[in-house]
Amino acid sequence: MKLLENSSVMIIAHPTAILKSNSITVPTGLKKDIARKAAEHGKIFEVNTKYQVPDDEFIGFLKLYGVKLSFGSDSHSIEEMRTVATKNNEKLAEYADYPLTSTFLV
After folding, report:
1. Beta partners for 47?
2. Are strands 11-12 and 44-48 parallel, antiparallel or unpaired?
3. Which of 1, 50, 76, 81 has the most C-beta neighbours closer than 10 Å?
4. How does pLDDT run across 35-91, given as a tens digit for each residue?
5. How many CB atoms lie within 10 A of CB 34?
6. Are 35 and 65 a contacting pair, CB within 8 Å?
7. Phi, psi at residue 46, to the nearest 5°?
8. Using an 8 Å Cβ cutoff, are 50 and 16 in contact?
9. Domains and their CATH numbers in the chain
């Protein structure tokens, strides 16, 4: 939670990716608490299409509390950007009615 309170941090990139890669599930209550705290401190959360994080439940809490979202690919090459762009477009379509930031993380 300290990360969310740090005024030098603006965007939380690929949240929960390391946990997901180690098959660790974030409890629902913790997702809700993180979303609430992120909103209180004006943080932006990346929706990362490469790692497919955060999960839909977490995104629901982020949206519920009005946390801004940024879409990222974590691409490291032109080819990866092409591949991930399709996923980004599909994911962005799901949020057509939700205000997004103009930040795009690569």
Report:
1. 71
2. parallel
3. 50
4. 999 999 999 999 887 788 999 999 999 999 999 988 777 777 777 777 766 666 666
5. 25
6. yes
7. -80, 135
8. no
9. 2-105 (3.20.20.140)
